[in-house]
Amino acid sequence: MSEAIEVRGLSYRAGRSFELRDVSLTVPRGSIYGFLGPNGAGKTTTIRVLLGMTRRDGGDVRLLGHSIPGELPGALARIGYVPERPHVYPSLTVADALRCHAAFHHRWDGVWAEQLRRQFELPLDRRVGRLSKGESGKLLMLLALAQRPELLILDEPTDGLDPMVRRDVLTALLDYVSETGATVFISSHLVHELERMCSWVGVLDHGRMVAELPIDVLKSGIKKIRLTDTPVNGHHPPFEVLSRGRDAFETETWVVRGWSDPMVQYFDTAGATVREVVDLDLEEVFVELLRSGREVTS
């Protein structure tokens, strides 16, 4: 089986203010999947449902081939999890936290845990509640990695960390993935950070999936087209128009999805002149997908 995570038709409602609506996503084994969305999009709620911490209203979830929640214990034995907020008792020392987690995970690698502890410069006798935010972030990643998981589910693991700590945490993560071929599902709103490491991207907004694609396909297929003499109505283009606007110099800019170079003929036939086809970085693609998705649902 090639999928580490399979979600089909997931639904969940939290009161009247928020719901997950027909969320479907597929995370291939061995991939690093960036789960993007603005704050409040439902990323943490989705992760909690995946891990059986929140009961869904409908849909199907499978983690590493295990049906959730019925086969949750078997799945959790193979998963490392870093939550959005620290989940270790603050009164424990770092040494206590390591011993506690080792007792619950039969694949725990004590030698590597100690190696990571030294690499992260975490003092054994320091109480968890007295760790800095950066030290706490390092400890959570250490606890997840030392389980030797096949799947890592990370909820904003570097949020609020300074650049040096982010680099240390992500380097340890990528080293582990390189060594083991583990799958990573990482939630974040820090788009530039994920652009450098992810092979797949899923975008969630207001509780629904806006896009899910390999990152190279996503970036290569969404372009900004600058035109003059543009067609008035743009009937039946061979691509999806995400946005369209005119500037003060009578140049019109289209942001399109599903672009390939031969499609310039569409504008030639319509009598328009393509002045420039501009590549977008992942953050620009992310913003355009959110904007177009909100226009459709408004």
Q: What's the β-strand tally?
A: 14
| Oligomeric composition of the shown chains | single chain
What strand order characterises the main sheet? 6-7-8-3-9-10
The number of helical runs is 10
- Hey, roughly how much beta strand do the residues contain? 25-35%
Taking the alpha carbons of the first and last residues, their distance comes to 39 Å
Task: Name the shape in a single word.
Answer: elongated
Overview of the structural elements:
By secondary structure, the protein is α/β, with parallel strands linked by helices. The chain is built from ten helices and 14 strands. It has helices at residues 43-50, 72-76, 94-104, 110-120, 133-145, 163-180, 191-195, 215-221, 264-269, 282-297, and strands at residues 3-14, 18-28, 32-36, 58-63, 66-68, 79-82, 151-155, 183-188, 200-205, 208-214, 222-228, 240-246, 252-257, 273-279. The strands form three sheets. A six-stranded mixed sheet has the order 6-7-8-3-9-10, with helices on both faces. Strands 2-1-4-5 form a four-stranded antiparallel sheet. Strands 12-13-11-14 form a four-stranded antiparallel sheet. It is elongated. The two termini are 39 Å apart.
Summarize the topology.
Layout: E1 3-14, E2 18-28, E3 32-36, H1 43-50, E4 58-63, E5 66-68, H2 72-76, E6 79-82, H3 94-104, H4 110-120, H5 133-145, E7 151-155, H6 163-180, E8 183-188, H7 191-195, E9 200-205, E10 208-214, H8 215-221, E11 222-228, E12 240-246, E13 252-257, H9 264-269, E14 273-279, H10 282-297
Parallel strand pairs: 3-8, 3-9, 6-7, 7-8
Antiparallel strand pairs: 1-2, 1-4, 4-5, 9-10, 11-13, 11-14, 12-13
